Amino acid sequence: MTRQIHFNAFDMNCVGHIQQGLWAHPRDQSMRYLDIHYWTDYARKLEAGLFDGIFFADVVGVYDVLGGSADAALRGAVQVPVNDPTLLIPAMAAATRHLGFGVTANLTYETPYLFARRMSTLDHLTGGRIGWNIVTGYLDSAARAVGLTGQTAHDDRYDLADEYMSLVYKLWEGSWEDGAVLRDRARGLYADPAKVHVVHHEGPQYKVDAMHLSEPSLQRTPVLYQAGSSARGSRFAASHAECVFVNGQSKPDVRKIVDDIRSLAVENGRAGSDIKVFVGATVITGRTDGEAQEKYAEYRSYVNSEAALVHAAASMGIDFAKYDMDEPIETGKSQAIVSNVDAMTRSAGPQWTKRKLLEQMVLGSRQQPLVGSAQSVADALVAWTTEADVDGFNLSRTVVPECFDDVISLVIPLLQERGVYKTQYAPGSLRAKLFGRDRLPQSHPAQQYRKLAGA
After folding, report:
1. Structural domains present in the chain
2. What is the DSSP letter of 222?
């Protein structure tokens, strides 16, 4: 069977997301992010293009590393102001039938018991179309906002995450048995108490003694996304994730990450096919290479270099305001996104500078765009799947909605002609569309907690 390419739109409930400065383009509509109709129209458009989903990024702090202030982030709308993405999903789900929703939620600052209920609620309201992008955070500003003095160490955050996952698995998978919900009007019996169980959890970070408040949803556990590419993040992904989001500047680098994650998954008793890998991509296309290059040049004229440095400084944990343009950057040991620092060192060498960083941020981020005719873009995407063993792409927005209009009208028909992109949605939940099943497989560590049912 021919491998099918999956597409997610990669966005955020804010003005400026990844490509810094493009919100100022006169055709860009992202300043309408406060209008619910903007989002419902967006959802319908993506579903018409048979996108698998929209992947919502999120942060719960501000980017204040550059110059020790959030001023530049505010000037450039660098992911601030930012609203809660989960509140968009029910409206977008009501406007669609098949589109999936991957939502980022930071487990460091979310109470597991209440978070488990929120995700179950979203899975019910979407008819089983919810996914969770598991993140542990990287902003000191977020830690201070919730009363902490700073970030927990990078690897320690993953230790906390492992415990968090075991607790939410107990709630989603083990508290309510299949068959616990009866809905028996004649007997006035909604649920069988003998099949609903209290979760007893006491660990280093969390203590819970309660039953899950929500009855089982179609998927029980949402589809699990994870975006860590550090050594510790890869181990976490190999254990828990179903969809892994990676960024990379070269196919060999991404292929190594993919191979490592799949190998680790097998070591954990899972199959390599239990994990689908999505690579971040920015597409600028047209009917011809010339048309695409003209659009690219136009977009570049709106790039905000200061805003790009704001985002890079926060994600790498480095204040670039302290360095001259050609002064080597001292990376040290960051508690931010370790893989971002490592990726920059691989691409630019150990003595990289602020000038080298800005040279890579041609559209306001380090994600190098695919620029060319629809035919050449289709060729490039297929090459990524064959050479880097990725399953799909998280497509970053540039100028919305035209960036997705171009993919839908120009690129997708070519992929469909090649038989590598679906011509209709499969039925069922988000997990069923991706993996052919509504629930997590027996090989997933969450399944051990189903033993609680009937115990």
Report:
1. 6-64+75-180+193-294+365-445 (3.20.20.30)
2. P
Give, in order, the Cα–Cα distances in Å from 199 to each of 182, 190, 215: 21, 21, 14
Of the candidates 420, 433, 423, the residue with the CA atom closest to the CA atom of residue 2? 420
- Report which of 285, 279, 291 is spatially closest to residue 379, judged by C-alpha positions: 285
For residues 238-247, average pLDDT: 94
Cis peptide leading into 193, omega within 30 of 0?
no
| CA 251 – CA 165 distance, rounded (Å) | 31
**Confidence band for 344, pLDDT divided at 50, 70 and 90:** low
Q: What's the pLDDT at 139?
A: 87
Q: Are strands 392-396 and 276-281 parallel, antiparallel or unpaired?
A: parallel
Give 351 or 101, the one with higher predicted confidence: 101
Mean pLDDT over 222-242 rounds to 90
DSSP string, 104-122: EEEGGGS-HHHHHHHHHHH
E strand or H helix at 56: strand 53-57
Could you tell me what percentage of the chain is helix, strand and coil, using 3-state DSSP and rounding each to the nearest 5? 45, 15, 40
Neighbour-count burial for 371-389, b at 16+ CB within 10 Å, e otherwise: bbbbebbbeebbebbeebb
- The dihedral over CA atoms of 59, 234, 110, 225, expressed in degrees to the nearest 10, equals 80
